[in-house]
Design brief:
Elements lengths: L4 E5 L3 H13 L3 E5 L2 H10 L4 E5 L7 H9 L9 E5 L4 H9 L4 E4 L4 H20 L5 E3 L2 E4 L4 E4 L2 E3 L3 H11 L6 E2 H9 L7 H15 L6 E4 L3 E4 L2
Parallel strand pairs: 1-2, 1-3, 3-4, 4-5
Antiparallel strand pairs: 6-7, 7-8, 8-9, 10-12, 11-12
Helix pairs in contact: 4-8, 6-7, 6-8
């Protein structure tokens, strides 16, 4: 099995060395850079299988780099694990909105970081297996492989998290899921996000669905479901 390539973007050299060392020991091919500018240069040479990204970087910060990655067709679906000292709900929500696949806060355990990376890579592999499975419910069409949603034939632009939530709910119309179940389905076990952040994502998704927003129903005291 080919070794996965991981790019680590971290301006603290001791942390960069720690992360790349542990990734290499785990069997990955790890490259480390100290800034967003160096990361963009590395991405021009080769697109990795996953990026570990610090938010607090000199010059362009991690959030700006994330925006650029998600706006580039070459990297818009590239798995991304944010590694940062910022641990407030607002920071986590911002990371989710920009398309982070996971969010690890400092100080961190290298074993936990490695487990999160493995989980993200497994989820991406499963998503690739489902790429040919187009879903259509009512006036909504979901193309997992193209990461595309059409409502009444019109394309709706969703973040990675919004897409994951919609795809999860649509696959099981009528089933009620708790916020925890939704987070675990989209991001995996022990993802650091609050119920409020899930509600924020659902609200943003409903706004983008327009007249079809009512298909996502709130079940008080439990969670959410996609109406049959």
């Amino acid at each position: 099995m080919a070794r996965k390539n991981i790019l680590v973007v971290e301006d603290e050299e001791d942390i960069l060395e720690l992360v790349t060392y542990n990734l290499t020991r785990e069997g990955y091919h790890a490259e480390g850079v100290l800034s967003a500018e160096e990361a963009l240069a590395a991405l021009k040479r080769n697109v990795p299988d996953l990026i570990v990204l610090d938010l607090m970087l000199p010059g362009a910060d991690g959030l700006e780099l994330c925006r650029r990655l998600r706006s580039d067709p070459r990297t818009e679906h590239l798995p991304l694990v944010m590694l940062t000292a910022k641990a407030e709900d607002t920071d986590i929500v911002t990371g989710l909105e920009l398309g982070a696949d996971d969010y690890v806060t400092k100080p961190f355990s290298p074993k936990v970081l490695l487990a999160r990376i493995r989980a993200v890579l497994r989820r991406k592999a499963r998503q690739q297996d489902d790429e040919k499975s187009t879903l259509q419910v009512r006036n909504i069409v979901i193309h997992p492989g193209r990461h595309e949603v059409l409502v009444d034939g019109e394309k709706v632009v969703l973040t990675s998290t919004e897409f994951g939530i919609l795809h999860f709910l649509v696959r099981r119309p009528g089933w009620v899921f708790t916020r925890k179940q939704i987070v675990e389905a989209v991001h995996g076990m022990n993802y650091p996000v609050t119920d409020r952040a899930v509600d924020f994502q659902i609200s943003a998704l409903r706004k983008k669905l327009g007249p079809s927003a009512d298909y996502i129903e709130t079940v008080r005291g439990v969670g959410y479901r996609f109406k049959e």
